[in-house]
Amino acid sequence: MTSLFREAHETLLPPKDSKDGPLPPLLVAVTFTTGLVDAFSFLELGRVFVANMTGNVVFIAFALAGVSGFSIAPSLIALGSFVLGSLAGGLLGSHIGSQRGRLLGTCTGIEASCLGVAVILAVLAGNPMPADYGYPTIVVLGISMGLQNAVARKLAVPDLTTTVLTLTLTGIVADSHLAGGTGSRAGRRLIAVLAMFAGAFVGVVSILHTSVVYPLAIALIVIASVSIASWTFSRGNKI
After folding, report:
1. Distance between CA 173 and CA 4 in Å, rounded?
2. Average pLDDT, the chain
3. What single-letter DSSP state applies at residue 177?
4. For the chain, how long is the longest CA-to-CA vector?
5. Is residue 236 situated within a structural domain?
6. Inter-residue contact 44 to 135 (CB < 8 Å)
7. Which domain range does residue 226 map to?
8. Continuous H helices in 97-130
9. How confident is the model over 29-63, as pLDDT tens digits?
10. Based on the number of CB atoms within 10 Å of its own CB, is 155 exposed (0-12), middle (13-18) or buried (19 or more)?
11. Handedness of CA 147, 150, 156, 160 (dihedral sign)
12. Contact 181, 189 (CB under 8 A)
């Protein structure tokens, strides 16, 4: 239990000699925004995820099988946009991947721009969001999530992929002492799970009780802050 809290603490407040520097807490913040964005996309864009592509593949199967409430087009658009964003993230990583702070700062800067466009579209569209606004919103959010996922992969900070929790949850159990493992990084993994849960919870509560724009607006503020912090740390040679 002591190691669990220590790992969680070191994820949020890394020691000075940490090889990843301030990247872990920055990526935790990015993970929080994934929950926000996917909550918005699922509730407001027609049962589609812009970050969770596994869900979209399943949704397409549901639609093809004739399950009511699911449509092929939104999930296909999200998949295509995510792939495009992943390509952009891969190219970005190939060019400046050795400069991790600059890479994250550039990625989140582009992502902030995409979120800004999504906020404008959400404001103009109102609630419920018609397809004329919904599809472009899926595109910009899907691109931003694909970019984010590719860059997180390039940064390769253990257990902080920012969008995928399946392997994270598997690691918590499979590497536990109960399973004969060392229990290593369970604290960090739990922080990642809680960050996405918190983002999704805040997103849903915002949509149900305030405004559909709030999840995207909060995500924009967080991502812009991460971008500024990443550039600042990069210039100070802390990343």
Report:
1. 13
2. 91
3. G
4. 55
5. no
6. no
7. 2-231
8. 100-125
9. 999 999 999 999 999 998 999 999 999 999 999 99
10. buried
11. positive
12. no
Joined together, the tokens standing for residue 47 give: 């049962």
The DSSP code for 127 is S
- Distance CA(101)–CA(157), nearest Å, equals 12
Query: Using one digit for the tens of pLDDT, what is the confidence trace for 136-191?
Result: 999 999 999 999 999 999 999 988 888 877 777 777 777 766 666 666 677 888 99
The answer to whether the CB of 53 falls within 8 A of the CB of 165 is no
- Count of structural domains, the chain: 1
Q: Is residue 152 in some structural domain?
A: yes
Reported residue count of the chain is: 239
If you search the block for the tokens 């060392």, which residue do you land on?
Answer: 182
One DSSP character per residue, 44-74 reads HTTS--SS-HHHHHHHHHHHHTT-TT--HHH
Pair of tokens at residue 3: 């190691």
Q: Report the half-sphere exposure of 3 (CA within 13 A, side-chain side).
A: 8
Please indicate, yes or no, if residue 201 is contained in any of the structural domains.
yes
Radius of gyration of the chain from Cα atoms? 18
User: Which phi-psi region, left, alpha or beta, contains residue 25 (left: φ > 0; alpha: ψ -120 to 50)?
Assistant: alpha
